[in-house]
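Reviewer comment 2.1 asked that we show a complete input and output for one of the modelled complexes. We chose the zinc ion case, as it is the one discussed in the main text.
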Amino acid sequence: MQLLNSVPVYHCGHAIPVETFELMDDHAQTLSWSAIKFACPQCCREALATLELNPQVYVNLQQIRPGMAAFVIEVQDVASPLADILALSAYVRRAASSDELHPGGDVFDLSLAVWRKEYWFANETEPMHVVALLRHLKQEMRWLAAYLRGGEQQIHFADFAHPYAE
Ligand SMILES: [Zn+2]
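Response of the prediction step:
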């Protein structure tokens, strides 16, 4: 982390917008702090535009194994530096899931990979804890949206990536 006049700045030299940071909870703030070693969201969006990439995010509830479900985030059409930021934030490259019951497995063709993160919970988890997890997830999406060219419009709940479309 660099400090310039006490304002935290990203690797590109731009500062974290304090207003945005104040709206975040601890989880989103942690994600922001860890991403500070990379270019800022705006510079990342410009880099994606140069590469003609428009990442899409798919958020779902999946049955991971008997008795275990997970909130699953899959991000499609990503390149550096956003790919590096996702890798640092515990996203891994996997094949895209096809639906709620079929999580994508190992990926053999990296050009078709998505970046995936899973938040697991047992089926018998108290609803209030699941709701808390969902809030956590929404904060993470607020953080991620800043890196997307279309912002929150690129985040799709209860939908899946379509790797073979077009
Ligand atoms: Zn920047």
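Residues 2-157 form one domain. We note this here for comparison with the apo prediction described in Section 3.2.
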